[in-house]
């Protein structure tokens, strides 16, 4: 089970990081398949026809021309990969150290979106059972909400009232983010939400009554 869980995480990360390439290649495959199918249905051009066409083409072209075509194709492919890497790949960290403000902003965004996600899941479960809700369902939902808020308050305190031992710790340890959970929130679309991550906003939720 542990191996399967790790494999599933790796596959999720692979698709998350490379979805632009997968989408483009899948689209090209669909277009090519649709074109071949159209030629087969309308003109009866099956795979044997395309095989004969390729053989005829290979006989009409010498090795030098074929080499030049392959070089041109390789150059174009390199340019395409560069363009895809620049414009379509999700933004990655530049490898430099994050400033204190960036670390705190990332931490604030994470704990706020985690709270939103957990409350959203609780509400979704209640909505799915709205025709058969019982007092037990409401009690369980209330308990889960209390836990979600308590977890938020526990982590938000580090931003508002860090204790002496936390102040002496490295900043990355104090405001560390669970990367697996952060990736899950990104995949679920919560990071597309526009939220206020300032200390005032976090403090306002921390002291909410």
Write the layout of secondary structure elements.
Blueprint (H helix, E strand, L loop, with lengths): L1 H42 L3 H14 L2 H25 L12 H29 L6 H26 L3 H4 L3 H4 L4 H9 L11 H8 L3
Strand content: under 5%
Separate helix tally? 9
Order of helices and strands: HHHHHHHHH
The percentage helix is: over 70%
Radius of gyration: 27 Å
State the end-to-end distance: 43 Å
Structural class: mainly alpha
Instruction: Tell me about the largest β-sheet.
Output: none
Query: How many beta-strand elements?
Result: 0
Shape: elongated
Average pLDDT metric:
81
- Poorly predicted residue ranges: 90-95
Attribute tags:
single chain; 209 residues; mainly alpha; elongated
Short description:
The chain is mainly alpha-helical and 209 residues long.
What does this structure look like?
The chain has helices at 2-43, 47-60, 63-87, 100-128, 135-160, 164-167, 171-174, 179-187, 199-206. It is built from nine helices and no strands. Helices cover 77% and strands 0% of the residues. α4 runs antiparallel to α5 (135-160) and α5 (135-160) crosses α9. It is mostly helical and 209 residues long. The model is unreliable at 90-95 (pLDDT under 50).
